[in-house]
Design brief:
It is a single chain. This protein has helices at 13-24, 61-68, 79-92, 105-117, 130-143, 165-174, 241-251, and strands at residues 3-8, 28-34, 57-58, 72-75, 95-98, 122-124, 148-155, 198-200, 203-209, 215-223, 226-234, 257-259. 31% of the residues lie in helices and 24% in strands. The protein folds into two domains: 3-124 and 238-263, NAD(P)-binding Rossmann-like Domain (Rossmann fold), CATH 3.40.50.720; 130-235, Dihydrodipicolinate Reductase, domain 2 (2-Layer Sandwich). The chain is α/β, with parallel strands linked by helices. The structure holds NADP nicotinamide-adenine-dinucleotide phosphate (NAP). The site of NADP nicotinamide-adenine-dinucleotide phosphate has 26 residues, from helix 1.
């Protein structure tokens, strides 16, 4: 069966890469694009793609659904729009594959409950890079033995949310092995606000934003006389694409919401 795919955010850096990836995949068909700006009737009108890329663009998901009947909506947009897109897609029976980060815990809970109740697949993957998923798994494993942890995530300076979805997911996975506790000196005091980073159950998360970076993270686990550093770097957006195609295939086989690629790989 050919999987019919729609993409939201196709003009963006991730979206453009995803358009080419889906177009090249013989088991998938790119049937439509969801945008929120009047930028033309087809992808070719955006001048970002070859003239034979005549995939239609819609400004309304309901109309997109009626006219092109996608099985899956791949969302690579922004934290402001992603929740509504995901909620609307589920309501229309379209299976979301979401790479956009920025969901709150409440939104994730609500979407999880909705997908379960309506028995529909949904995959939300804060990081589609397989190496990043392994970094998170290894950090979770190591946290059992080295529970004093700081996460440093580093991204390009156009990223809108902080901490990154990957850092939040890593902290969430680590918290399954680590009892909440304060780290550092009990009397430590910030002389400059934010110096110690964000506080997740006593674990610290630091967000670096600089031009030149793409997506990087290191997890530092300190113990008496030792430091374990687990680091992953994405050097280009190609690193995310095998995770996108894997998720599009997998979302057709599940009837609930899966948060994190680590839950769909062996
Ligand atoms: P980007 O270059 O800014 O692309 C986002 C695109 O979405 C832009 O073209 C934007 O259009 C468009 N957009 C915004 N709101 C929209 C809406 N309501 N409907 C349709 N399109 C909309 O950003 P990016 O680097 O591609 O990243 C996109 C998202 O993926 C971010 O949340 C990022 O954190 C995430 N990300 C995830 C992974 C992963 O592995 N899961 C990896 C990298 C990035 P305008 O520019 O005209 O506003």
């Amino acid at each position: 069966m050919t999987i019919r795919v729609a993409i939201a955010g196709a003009r963006g850096k991730m979206g453009q890469e995803a358009v080419h990836t889906i177009m090249k995949n013989t088991g998938m068909e790119l049937v439509s694009i969801l945008d929120y700006k009047e930028i033309g009737e087809t992808l070719a009108d955006t001048n970002l793609f070859p003239q034979n890329f005549t995939v239609p663009i819609f400004l309304d998901l309901k109309e997109l659904h009626e006219k092109t009947k996608p099985d899956v909506l791949v969302d690579l947009t922004s934290p402001e729009s992603v929740y509504q897109h995901t909620r609307d897609a589920l309501g229309l029976g379209i299976r979301p594959v979401v790479g956009t980060t920025g969901f709150s815990d409440e939104e994730l809970k609500e979407l999880t409950a909705y997908a379960k109740e309506h028995r529909i697949g949904c995959i939300i993957a804060p990081n589609f890079a397989i190496g990043a998923v392994l970094m998170m798994k290894f950090a979770e494993q190591a946290a059992k033995y080295l529970p004093d942890i700081e996460i440093i995530e580093l991204h390009h300076d156009q990223k809108l949310d902080a901490p990154s979805g990957t850092a939040m997911k890593t902290a969430n996975m680590i918290s399954k092995q680590r009892e909440p506790h304060m780290q550092g000196h009990p009397k430590e005091k910030e002389t400059l606000e934010g110096a110690r980073g964000a506080n997740y159950d006593g674990m610290r998360i630091h967000s670096v934003r600089l031009p030149g970076l793409l997506a990087h993270q290191q997890v530092l686990l300190g113990g008496e006389g030792q430091l374990l550093t687990i680091r992953h770097d994405s050097f280009n957006r190609g690193s995310f694409m095998s995770g996108v195609t894997l998720s599009v295939t997998k979302v057709m086989e599940i009837d609930n919401l899966v948060y994190g690629l680590e839950n769909i790989i062996d």
